[in-house]
Design brief:
Blueprint (H helix, E strand, L loop, with lengths): L4 E5 L5 H11 L9 H5 L6 E7 L2 E12 L2 E9 L8 H15 L4 E7 L3 H9 L3 E12 L12 E2 L9 H4 L6 E3 L7 E3 L10 E5 L5 E9 L3 E9 L1 H17 L4 E7 L17 E9 L1
Parallel strand pairs: 4-5, 12-13
Antiparallel strand pairs: 1-2, 2-3, 3-4, 5-14, 6-13, 6-14, 7-10, 8-9, 10-11, 11-12
């Protein structure tokens, strides 16, 4: 039986309904506090709602960090209509909206143990790319001291980074804007600005770090190599945080790279841990 679900962009008038859905799922949900930001997003980004018979029963946010790349997050379904097929009706509408916006690669994240959501998105063509860990709003970095071997990348280093580009999730990494939003890495992402390396033996590289500087924060998008190289590269990031007037740092990495962050002394209970899914349109 088909579900009479329609979808549209949210308006300020939807705040009460969206907040009620979010807090019914989790009293501490972040979405109510971010509603004004989300509803104010401009096309192609946006906060969308699903309606049944004129009542808001679901919502989600779409972020388009660059042309052709889309990221879905914040999907909520009213517990009062769960098990009624709303999710199965809502996901295809999200995919169609992404297609209208010219998105070729569509990403989303889902909590480790949310098996029901994993099955739902896989049913509609999303494939699991791997496990990711995201550290938001890092302000207290205990790592001190100047880097010893880390240096800005040079043009002649670019051929040497090829082995690192194939590691872990390969061509997928956080966007230049946020550790929460994942994209397919393009050649312009590997520009020398924001790329740091550590030399190894026989002319190879022992490690690399790909960063993006935003007005108030630094995003670490990739960290690869030995533990020693990673510590030296992280000293670069820590020094930037202190010397360039940045308020915080965000880090998004495959879970298997989390060990490389040990020198920062981060609380292991603080990061968000997800499975990353991708759908090629």
């Amino acid at each position: 039986m088909s579900i009479p679900l329609t979808m549209r962009r949210a308006t300020p008038a939807d705040k009460e309904a969206i907040c009620a859905i979010a807090t019914a799922i989790d009293p501490h949900d972040w979405l109510p506090n971010a509603f004004e930001w989300a509803v104010g997003l401009k096309e192609p980004d946006g906060l969308f709602v699903g309606e049944m018979e004129g009542r808001v029963v679901a919502c989600y946010v779409m972020d388009v960090p660059r042309p052709g790349e889309g990221f879905l997050f914040g999907m909520r379904v009213d517990p009062a209509v769960q098990n009624a097929g709303v999710g199965s009706a809502f996901v295809p509408l999200q995919i169609e909206e992404a297609r209208k916006q010219g998105i070729r690669n569509l990403f989303l994240t889902s909590a480790y143990l949310n098996f029901r959501a994993h099955h739902l998105v896989e049913k509609f063509g999303f494939h699991k790319r791997g496990e990711v860990v995201v550290w938001p709003d890092i302000t207290d970095v205990k790592l001190t001291g100047a880097p010893v071997k880390a240096r800005p990348a040079r043009p002649d280093d670019l051929p040497k980074i090829e082995p690192f580009r194939r590691l872990h999730m390969g061509d997928v990494a956080p966007s230049q804007f946020s550790a929460y939003t994942f994209v397919t890495l393009a050649e312009e992402d590997w520009a020398l600005d924001g790329l740091w390396v550590v030399d190894g033996a026989d002319g190879a590289l022992d490690g690399l770090m790909l960063t993006s500087r935003q007005p108030e924060y630094l995003v670490i998008r990739r960290l690869e190599g030995s533990l020693e190289a990673a510590e030296d590269l992280l000293r670069v990031a820590a020094a930037k945080l202190r010397s360039e007037g940045l308020k915080s740092m965000e880090i998004g990495l495959p879970t298997r790279c989390e060990v490389l962050l040990a020198p920062l002394g981060l609380d292991p209970r603080k990061p968000d841990r997800w499975f990353l899914f991708q759908r090629k349109m």
